[in-house]
Amino acid sequence: MSPQRFLLETGYGFFMGAATLVPGISAGTVAFILGIYPRVIAALAALNADWWRALCRLDRARLAVDGWQLLLALGTGACVALLLLVGGLLEWIQLWPQQFRGLFCGMILGSILLFLCTMGGGTLRLLWWLLAGAVTGMLLLTGLSLVALPVHPAALFLAGMIALATMLVPGLSGAYILLLLGLYETVLTAVDEFRLELLVPFAAGGLLGLLLVTRLLNLLLRRYQTALLLFVNGLLLVSLQHIWPFAGELWAPTNRAAGTAVVVGLAITLGCGYMRPAA
Q: Whole-number mean pLDDT of the chain?
């Protein structure tokens, strides 16, 4: 991998890490609109039992898997995002909530439109998968309700497993799941203050969740890629209702809402002009 490519994909990792912190947006969503989603899933799925045994034995010859450079770049960027953003992220979201949501809405809309426009005529018969994804998203997101898990290692392990597995599914937000579980601020504070007694069980559960869900997603991508990506687009469409910036202001526009509309328009233009559909 060239240094320029490494820096570019490190930047992708930065945006994925930043998106992970924002309720309603996921790293999987960002990977999807950047066009690297199948590569990320394939690289994570390559971290199988043989790889972990090689890691324990420090067998460098077997540690190199397809996509390890991508994972290294993305991991570096994500860690930088977590270290730089976690302390002030909540304050930023409170200061510019519509701008944050408007930007991501525009990117998601641009990505969906571009993907649908580039579909071949022979795949149009599979569009019912788009509807299936939208219906599934509605059932999942509307059926969730706020609970309050205790700040306990077992609860953090469970929350990490659910949140990080969810993080890889475009349209489903791991941070939003943490918010519903009542552990969002707890986890952000633990990262900001580097509290290992909270981070270790959360990270252990998250690692297990990632390993489990990537196997399934990689299998589906290899066998049913077009159908799965249409299903994912359906999930993304439904996820817009949770991050739509104009809720309650469509009939009473303000200067702030008008400014956000400009952001959304620019982001849609960016999505259609630069973002590539995942393939």
A: 76
